[in-house]
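look at this:
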Amino acid sequence: MAAYIIRRILLMIPTIFGIMLVTFAVTQFVPGGPVERMLAQLQGADRAGGEVRASRSVDLYQGDKGLDEERVAQLTKLYGFDKPPVERFLTMMKNYLVFDFGQSYYHHNSVVALVISKLPVSMSLGLWSFLIVYGVCIPLGIAKAMREGSRFDVITSTAILIGYAIPGFVLAIVLIVLFGGGSFFSIFPLRGLVSDNWAEMGLAAKVADYLWHMVLPVLSSAVGSLAVMTLLTKNSFLEEIRKQYVLTARAKGLSEKQVLYRHVFRNAIIPIITGFPGSFITAFFTGSLLIETIFSLDGMGLLAYESILNRDYPVVLGTLYFFTIIGLISRLLSDLSYVVVDPRISFESVESR
């Protein structure tokens, strides 16, 4: 097992390097980089909004429009584009090894501090959605497997498939219209994680206020995932229930509960539990642009969109590097969880090849 883990970790190095190299190379050919955007702002090209559209490209030399070559050279050096691309890439990767992601071009703040400030929103949406999906889907999938073909199975399958077919942002709009003071009921708040006077509340009131703000965004995020996990759980249990050892256990006089929880459960739950580590880790860092925009939540999804739109390369590349590591580690933990859940699985044969 140790040799397998070491080999997987070593394979992460070229994977991360390749992903960062491709992304860095792409950014070199995207028009409207940070230097061009700053030049356009200095010219007053977008005085009304303070932003320059990404599709607009401005030549580096703007001496005939009031900006001399010296000013252009200063801006180029400020953003580090006076160095060759290879040198900039190697310097960037060297800094990333110690998690030094630099400063944001757009927000004028360190990338680490910027990400930390956005994480509460993404963690709230991801973690609660994760808990709801696993907390609802596993019991529901088991119940559907035990009642396959019944009215309960048909009704619940129809309901979750309808929820799966509705995009999350459409469901969010519907919930706002129905329960957020749109046209019917004004029950749930629409903006932010907490109320404006949250700091003045007591502990119990703070918890209640936070949970109250999370109801609509979490429902919008979680409903689409219910169908996949529920049907995965149902099919996994059905496959085990139809095996010969279950018939043998029933023939020995065991009750349905004993058959389900002593024999079927520990085998059928393996494909569900093995995805638990990866889903749990990624739940803390994922973001949803549309959900965050609709409910006025400033999280990782909105940060990623703004960074790409504003050519904020330190944020784009820094977060990509960090989340790639998180994704690779979560995949490794998912693979290792097979051994923990099912002792019959071993990496010994893999290591000996």
Confidence is low (pLDDT under 50) at residues 45-66. The radius of gyration is 26 Å. The CA atoms of residues 339 and 346 lie 6 Å apart. The domain at 112-171+224-345 is CATH 1.10.3720.10 (MetI-like fold).
